[in-house]
Design a protein that fits this description.
By secondary structure, the chain is mainly α. 76% of the residues lie in helices and 0% in strands. It is built from 13 helices and no strands. Helix 6 packs antiparallel against helix 7. The longest helix is centred in the middle third of the chain and has 15 residues. The relative contact order is 0.05.
């Protein structure tokens, strides 16, 4: 009955008096009610109130991974990248086999320029899910952002041992070699890129 009254009042009026129908303050620990209030305020573009009720909903049901995901997204949208990343870390702890949680944590740590913690999540992802081309590329990207070119190169070189002939790893490594003035290695690897990825027109043009 509560949900019917509240939803009907909101749909009919589209104004901010739904809390007068049945305030969530009467049931502060009921995550469904508080989450509904968050959605109502979100639809009304009252971002502050929507965020406040969403956080309350998460506190009311801290084991609810859906709500945690919503909160992580909300923090990220507000530019609170560190807070968002922490939420995704908690999701990783709850669901260690969901790649999306690792992605959310890594991306938010990178946006917040917390590169060490971003690498920490990638190490956890590799431990729990095994190595992947995505993990190698993300590590490479982070080391480049940190200005540590040699570590970035080493990540790709080690990646090619695990994933031999992978053009997604060869191409950025060619760029790194040339950027690091290691021209001969770049030329040698460019030849391999032409074989690994015959459709790469730029590689063929450079290699001649």
């Amino acid at each position: 009955f509560f949900f019917f009254k509240q939803k009907t009042a909101y749909e009919v009026s589209r104004s901010d008096w739904s809390s007068d129908v049945c305030s969530s303050d009467l049931f502060p620990s009921h995550d469904s009610i508080v989450y509904l209030m968050s959605k109502i305020y979100f639809d009304q573009e009252n971002w502050e109130a929507a965020s406040d009720y969403l956080i309350k909903a998460g506190k009311a049901d801290p084991k609810n991974v859906f709500l945690l995901g919503e909160i992580g997204y909300m923090y990220s949208a507000r530019g609170e990248f560190e807070a968002a990343a922490k939420v995704y870390e908690s999701l990783v702890a709850k669901e260690p086999y969901q790649t999306a949680h690792y992605f959310g944590g890594v991306e938010n740590y990178i946006k917040g320029e917390n590169f060490n913690d971003a690498l920490g999540i990638l190490e956890r992802q590799e431990k729990n899910l095994g190595n992947s081309i995505e993990i190698v590329l993300n590590k490479h990207r982070i080391y480049r952002l940190m200005g540590q070119m040699q570590k970035a190169i080493l990540v790709l070189e080690n990646g090619l041992i695990v994933f031999p002939g992978e053009p997604e790893l060869i191409a950025p490594l060619v760029d790194d070699y040339f950027e690091s003035k290691d021209t001969q290695k770049g030329i040698d690897l460019l030849a391999k890129l032409c074989v690994a990825d015959p459709t790469n027109g730029i590689a063929k043009m450079l290699f001649g």
